Backbone:
């Protein structure tokens, strides 16, 4: 039988779950909301699995940022604050065998005096400090923004590893996320022996006391009851009728499915299909190792290009009663699997040149069909889960407040 709803949400990751519950909290009747999910358990990239007696986040490292109260209010409804521990972030960079606190430019004081002098000289010559024009090339932009030494020792090799592609394919429009290097702050940190500057995201974060990060999303899925259908792969979409698999039809479809997957499922206009084909993603392997590390870090960035992985999540430092750690590695760089491996084919959207124009064209076309792209893959942006939830809360308000059902 055909099931007709007002809002059909494709995907039960953080975006889809938060959107569904936000719509219900705004008074939309349960019968008007339906979420379908290909996996057996909700949570998307934020799912967890039990490995060696304790949880591992199979999508990589995920933590709950403490800064967005509306996000905390929503998630604590399903997993109360009493079930979370709060941590002061300890992130490290493995720089030639020495662990340096992240961000590097704020913690140069932890290096030898000679290295401090070399890095400070490099920062003083950085283009943004010297007032030279901003370059368009990604590699030159990194040098311009951070200085040659930080670029060569950390930022460029790290990006070569995580994306595993020629860096000239990347645009520069997304690099506002990198902080401006400050010669004054870097010098002050070296003189006073403590960090100065802006702390990145997750300065403080929360993680479940007795579960993996996936538990809150699992509970949100359970709370939807029959308004969530798991194990339901999207195989066909009738765009004009907004009908999925010949079973579900909706007034408005909200998709968190990667746009690059749509041409195999739907009849897409050639010019839009071409735009979808421009979108690039990378796959990531999450591998578990049972050894404990001596580091007190919660996670460690690894820029050395002779080491396959780019990040280590030190499980025993944030998951009580656990041991070991897991690594994140671009799937193109992975060697043989060890004790446990989970491959995320769609892990990170890539900020290639021309991506904003491609996504804009796709979203504009989709809107004419009453289809909305949301979340990491609907917007093709690297969103942390707290950002995805915050956007879903806002989207739910727009959908309810606009009578035509579109934001």
Residues:
């Amino acid at each position: 039988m055909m099931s007709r709803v007002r809002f059909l949400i494709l995907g039960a990751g953080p975006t889809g779950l938060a959107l569904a519950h936000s719509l219900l909290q705004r008074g939309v009747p349960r019968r008007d909301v339906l979420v379908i999910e290909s996996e057996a358990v909700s949570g998307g990239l934020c799912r967890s699995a039990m490995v060696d007696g304790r949880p591992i986040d199979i999508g990589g490292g995920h933590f709950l940022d403490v800064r967005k109260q509306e996000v905390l209010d929503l998630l604590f409804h399903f997993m109360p604050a009493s079930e979370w521990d709060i941590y002061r972030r300890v992130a490290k960079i493995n720089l030639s065998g020495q662990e340096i606190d992240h961000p590097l430019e704020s913690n140069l004081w932890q290096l030898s005096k000679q290295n401090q002098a070399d890095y400070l000289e490099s920062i003083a010559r950085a283009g943004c400090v010297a007032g030279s024009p901003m370059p368009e090339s990604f590699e030159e932009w990194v040098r311009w923004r951070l200085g040659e030494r930080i670029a060569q020792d950390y930022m460029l090799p790290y990006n070569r590893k995580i994306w595993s592609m020629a860096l000239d394919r990347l645009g520069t429009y997304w690099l506002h996320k990198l902080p401006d290097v400050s010669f004054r702050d870097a010098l002050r940190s070296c003189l006073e022996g403590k960090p100065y500057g802006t702390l990145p995201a997750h300065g403080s974060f929360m993680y479940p006391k007795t579960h993996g990060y996936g538990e809150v999303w699992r509970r949100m899925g359970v709370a939807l009851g029959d308004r969530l259908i798991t194990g339901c792969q999207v195989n066909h979409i009738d765009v004009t009728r907004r009908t999925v698999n010949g079973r579900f039809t909706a007034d408005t479809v909200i998709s968190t499915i990667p746009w690059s997957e749509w041409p195999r499922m739907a009849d897409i206009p050639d010019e839009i299909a071409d735009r979808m084909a421009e979108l690039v993603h990378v796959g990531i392997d999450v591998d578990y190792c049972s050894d404990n590390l001596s580091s007190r870090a919660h996670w460690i960035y690894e820029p050395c290009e002779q080491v396959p992985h780019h990040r280590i999540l030190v499980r025993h430092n944030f998951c009580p009663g656990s041991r070991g750690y897991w690594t994140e590695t671009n799937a193109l760089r992975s060697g043989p699997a060890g004790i446990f491996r989970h491959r995320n084919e769609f892990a990170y959207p890539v900020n290639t040149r021309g991506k904003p124009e491609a996504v804009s064209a796709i979203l504009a076309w989709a809107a004419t069909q009453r289809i909305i792209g949301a979340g990491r893959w609907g917007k093709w942006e690297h969103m942390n889960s707290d950002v995805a939830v915050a956007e879903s809360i806002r989207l739910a308000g727009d959908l309810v407040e606009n009578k035509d059902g579109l934001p």
